[in-house]
């Protein structure tokens, strides 16, 4: 399939509005200049040509200003009116000019229309506009008595400008096209995607990702040539059906056997019906993931949800459509808005970590809480995964790190050796610059590196990339403490404990819960404690809720613990008060001392 390359694929509505607006302004200004020239050479009074050109120039400039402001929202068809109107205004200006030189200057503006026609429209429409402008040019110049050779020269200039513009448009279009199917390629799609989701666009928008289920079988059984022809046939059907059904839709080949549909002004229900209707026309089974954009949702989050829905459709057997969870999208959108506009919706609480022998407070774990103005308190079990999926975990993590370190400085004024532990996701660890961000926060808050502990889960450690491990090693080298959180939920980290840059091991609550009822679990913990002692690792038991658990942990030799038995997460003010109350009263020197 090969469509004629044209600016419908290259010139976006916004680009068309900018080009048309500025050319109208330039053409109007030129008409005014010609009119003023006639006025200056007039022997007596104000010439009629000046008044005509003044009216034409002001009309063109006013139109240009309007197009610049609002033209990006207009339908593409309206630009036929603007381009045709440009030809009419230039014809009138050419007829109105009071001198031969003014006539030629006004006629030269026809080149602006030639640019627009070749840039905006497919060849048939562009040719129609070109014929209109050339007719206006010939009629106007012939009427003014311009020699035929001069008319021919300007005629050829307009043709050359139109031809060169068409070639450039064709080249630009080729760069944004998939060579096999003729559809927009991934680059063009992402540009259209960015335009459709720019800012806080309130228009409904649904993204669909289609994956052909049996293309590999076609390639293996009938050869790659048959597979290519099938892709072209699918592309033709998708483009024809979808663009006819949804104005402004973009159908693109995303790579391999994947196609993406950008469906503006379409809700998830309508998109689902459209995709299901395509199954009978496409001629090959496909899986589809759909995601309707929530207000303010980022492009990356929307695409991730659509791809996740596609994975669910293929996992479920293929040949089906799955819709992404819209509730999760709305939550992610609220999260985005809160982080950008009202970060005070988030606050940090701290859960104490205590010495199991003395009960003394050793450290606190910083935990994020979110109170939404209309949702009320949102569970971390909901918003933390939403932040991960929406790509917001780094922003949320930075906010928590900053506030936790500031709180730690306040608490260390009472207990200088207290440590604050902050949870860090795998995505944060692999971000370029995360190490520098941590050091910057420590510098700004005044917290010593030894007063911060970075907690990473066992699953993150198990799947760590060299970048993540290198980050942990650099933090460890700078005396920032590192803890492996939720230990006991996996299996692989046992063999790596001696190689990990860690100071602490935090036992998962589920592991801790079984030590009073399972002798084998208690035996495993005893062996783990001995191993950690040999490696120089401190062990913290999480989720301690009963006295029996605390007693058993003490008997086994576990040094520290955390859980509701000791304290629930609390505001920093409560922790500060607790530290003040636990601090020994200053000794009062007796007057009798020394007697």
UniProtKB/TrEMBL annotation:
Top-level taxon: Bacteria
Regions that span the bilayer: 21-43, 49-70, 77-97, 127-145, 151-169
PROSITE patterns: EAL (PS50883), GGDEF (PS50887)
Pfam family for this entry, one: GGDEF
Domain EAL: 328-583
Keyword terms, alphabetized: Membrane, Transmembrane, Transmembrane helix
Name this polypeptide is given: Bifunctional diguanylate cyclase/phosphodiesterase
Source lineage: Bacteria, Bacillati, Actinomycetota, Actinomycetes, Kineosporiales
């Amino acid at each position: 399939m090969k469509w004629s390359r044209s600016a419908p694929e290259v010139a976006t509505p916004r680009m068309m509005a900018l080009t048309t607006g500025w050319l109208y302004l330039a053409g109007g200004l030129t008409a005014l200049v010609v009119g003023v020239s006639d006025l200056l050479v007039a022997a007596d009074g104000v010439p009629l040509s000046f008044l005509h050109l003044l009216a034409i120039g002001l009309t063109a400039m006013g139109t240009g200003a309007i197009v610049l402001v609002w033209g990006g929202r207009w339908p593409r068809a309206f630009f036929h009116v603007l381009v045709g109107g440009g030809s009419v205004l230039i014809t009138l200006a050419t007829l109105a000019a009071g001198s031969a030189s003014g006539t030629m200057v006004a006629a030269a503006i026809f080149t602006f229309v030639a640019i627009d026609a070749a840039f905006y429209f497919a060849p048939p429409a562009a040719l129609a506009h070109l014929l209109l402008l050339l007719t206006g040019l010939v009629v106007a110049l012939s009427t003014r008595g311009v020699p035929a050779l001069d008319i021919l020269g300007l005629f050829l200039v307009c043709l050359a400008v139109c031809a060169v513009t068409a070639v450039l448009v064709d080249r630009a279009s080729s760069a944004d096209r998939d060579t096999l199917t003729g559809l927009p390629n991934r680059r063009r799609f992402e540009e259209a995607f960015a335009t459709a989701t720019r800012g806080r666009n309130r228009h409904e928008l649904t993204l669909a990702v289609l994956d052909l289920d049996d293309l590999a079988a076609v390639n293996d059984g009938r050869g790659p040539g048959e597979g290519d022809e099938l892709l072209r046939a699918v592309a033709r059907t998708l483009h024809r059906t979808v663009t006819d059904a949804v104005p402004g839709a973009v159908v693109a080949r995303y790579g391999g056997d994947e196609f993406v549909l950008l469906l503006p002004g379409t809700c998830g229900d309508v998109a689902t019906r459209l995709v299901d209707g395509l199954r009978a026309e496409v001629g090959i089974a496909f899986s589809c993931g759909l995601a309707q954009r929530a207000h303010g949702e980022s492009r990356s989050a929307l695409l991730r949800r659509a791809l996740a829905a596609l994975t669910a459709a293929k996992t479920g057997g293929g040949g089906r459509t799955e819709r992404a969870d819209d509730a999760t999208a709305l939550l992610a959108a609220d999260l985005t808005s809160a982080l950008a506009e009202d970060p005070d919706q988030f606050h940090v609480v701290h859960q104490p970590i205590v010495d199991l022998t003395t009960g003394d407070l050793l450290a606190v774990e910083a935990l994020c809480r979110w109170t939404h103005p209309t949702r009320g308190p949102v569970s971390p079990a909901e918003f933390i995964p939403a932040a991960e999926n929406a790509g917001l975990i780094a922003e949320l993590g930075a906010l928590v790190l900053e506030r936790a370190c500031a709180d730690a400085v306040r608490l260390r004024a009472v207990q200088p050796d207290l440590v604050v532990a902050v949870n860090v996701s795998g995505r944060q660890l692999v971000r370029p610059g995360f190490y520098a961000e941590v050091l910057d926060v420590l510098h700004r808050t005044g917290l010593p590196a030894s007063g911060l502990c970075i907690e990473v889960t066992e699953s993150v450690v198990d799947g760590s990339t060299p970048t993540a491990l290198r980050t942990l090693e650099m933090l460890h080298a700078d005396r920032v403490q590192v803890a492996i959180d939720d230990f006991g939920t996996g299996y692989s980290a046992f063999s790596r404990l001696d190689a990990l840059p860690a100071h602490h091991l935090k036992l998962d609550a589920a592991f801790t819960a079984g030590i009073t009822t399972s002798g084998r679990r208690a035996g495993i913990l005893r062996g783990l404690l001995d191993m950690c002692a040999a490696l120089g690792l401190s062990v913290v038991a999480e989720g301690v809720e009963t006295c029996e658990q605390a007693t058993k942990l003490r008997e086994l030799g576990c040094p520290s613990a955390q859980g509701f038995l000791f304290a629930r997460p609390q505001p920093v003010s409560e922790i500060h008060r607790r530290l003040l109350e636990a601090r020994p009263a200053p000794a009062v020197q007796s007057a009798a001392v020394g007697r």
